[in-house]
Amino acid sequence: MNKLKNTLLNDSFNRAYSSVFSILIGLLFGLIILMISNSDQAVDGFVIILKGGFSTGAKGMGQVLYFATPLILTGLSVGFAFKTGLFNIGAAGQFIMGAFAAVYIGVKWTFLPAPWHWIVALIGAAVVGGLWALIPGLLKAYLNVHEVIATIMMNYIGMYLANYLVKLTVYDSKKALSMNVAETAVLPKGGLDQVFFNHIGTTKDMSTVNGGIWIAILIAIVIYIILNKTTFGYELKACGYNPHASKYAGINDKRNIVLSMVIAGMLAGLGGGLLYLAGANGRHIKVVDVLAAEGFNGIPVALLGLSNPIGIIFSAIFISYITQGGNYLQTLNFVPEVIDIIIACIIYFSAFALIFRNILPRFIKFRKEKKAAKAEEQMETTTAAEVEVEAQVKEEGSDKE
Amino acid sequence: MSILFLVFQQTMFFSIPLLIVALGGVFTERSGVTNIALDGMMIMGAFTSIFFINQMQATMSGQSLLLIAILIATGTGAIFSLLHAYAAVNLKADQIISGTALNMFAPAFAIFVARMIQENGVQQINFANTFRIQSVPLLGDIPVIGGLFFKNAYITTYLGFVILILAVFVLYKTRFGLRLRACGEHPHAADSVGINVYRMRYAGVMISGALAGLGGLVFVIPTSTNFNATVSGYGFLALAVMIFGQWRPLRVLFAAFFFGLMKTIASAYSVIPFLSTSDIPSDIYKMVPFIATLIVLAFSSKSSQAPKAVAIPYDKGSR
Lengths: 401, 319
Description:
The complex is a heterodimer. Chain A is an all-alpha fold. Chain A has helices at 2-9, 11-37, 42-51, 57-83, 91-108, 114-143, 147-169, 212-229, 231-241, 243-248, 253-276, 293-304, 309-328, 338-350, 353-381, 384-400, and strands at 171-172, 177-178, 197-200, 203-206. Chain A has two domains: 1-41 and 348-401, no CATH class; 45-332, ABC transporter involved in vitamin B12 uptake, BtuC, CATH 1.10.3470. Chain A is globular, with a radius of gyration of 26 Å. Helices cover 70% and strands 3% of the residues of chain B.
């Protein structure tokens, strides 16, 4: 019992608890909205949201993981920047530039043999994403341009540039999408094709999920180690907490700002690579003047995962899960944007995380104090005889020693 | 000459909403609360007011309809901004996070409601543009100036300038403005002389919400005939304009015009003689305003004059 209480008082548990609490409130809010819009089917609709990817069995769960992959990376991008005191709102631009680089290499560099082709394409995606974040990083470090504004501008520039480059080089005008990447550039399945498929008669209806999810999880672990187990990560975090103190301690704050941004950009760019190197039935780059949603959804993923790389894996899968559920909502004539409303609500409440974080420990402490007070009362009412007995027992105990 | 008029009028259509929203940003940041939800507030204001126009245009039209829509947009923005104010002031929450939440909420809400309420189930809300003034009587006949300012105009353009003058007056010539600015620079000092910091910050956020809501409507009316749950990231651009304008109304005016001109070049280059002959693709032109803003920011940010206490929740107990 005591152990349980200690875990409840434990800080990291408490933080996770506040996220769960926000999620519950967000879901409740979603239910209310469903009720208002169509009370007859509200409960059915809510069940569909909760069932998420499971609605279409194993293939659906595969899709959840496929769309969670880029979210993990953009979430890591935003979360990593958060930890180092920067707000990277530019994951969308870094993501789409990385995506273009990966698709370009995937389509054009067919001279590369099988495993190297997709590896080089992924590296290309990360490098281009990193370069895209280098500019706001330099502007922030040396010219004091606020990174929020700089990365927003880079988002739009990246979107238009990616559209232009896709149309120029790897455009399939029949489908109005980017071309399929070469077979050698498609990410290997990583054993997941054995799990995530549905049977339709004798044929297998495959999910698009591939080894990208393994890479994403691996990267999350690497980022966790960098942030928590290395001097480099410690310096980056120190700059985030207090740039003046860390400068005083001899840390090169300008270099660290640039490095943080570049690493964040590399993560987002890699996310673009992982999503689009997925064969003919995977996603393709659409040439539209809309910022990549995966980039912006990195923000809720990071907030919900409390910027902790391991937490981000779970929050990305959760966001992907209910988004898939939202797509199935259309069968009941509900609008899938309900999911975005729910996510917005979750984030709004996670902004008060501090308050949730304080309520539970206070409540437990209060109960403890109450119990202690009760125990004291009992002590007072115990008879003198009992006290004597107790004293004797104590004496015996001390004699034995 | 007609090209000059066209470019100038286009520049107005792009700059006035930026000016209005960026002035809203000035009020909220000067009170010490950062508001990156300007974009969401624009969407909410545009959504309710355009929806109102959509519903009422059968019975009303012209300037009276527009005036009521302006009131609705302003009110919606102010009410929606209360969510941000409550989080930022009362709950001392992270202002960036709560702003992000509102930015996500607004377009989702607009699409959701539009698809639920409209009979055909689409997310676009159409409206007939009956608000254009062909030529203002008398003033429109003045040579050159009449063509620049008083033809093919909307009352929202003039409203933008009225708001600018009001903003300068309120911020620098009234007791309220002085107190508001004090809360953004040093809230503890302001509190010690009896100013209610919470109330001032609420006022700042609500003014920004009202102006952002209005800006949403002002942006959509001249540039489109339907509202599609987006203001093309104008709220974020307004933030950049505010920083470029160094949190001062008159410099914000200059910044908004600079950006509006860039945007006009990006969208109307095909009618500008010496640009239409070059074979630069349209995507490159679309980047121009953003690249220009980045360059300008790079040169103007070194000596930033941001309010000192911006984005820091006010806690009476802290020192």
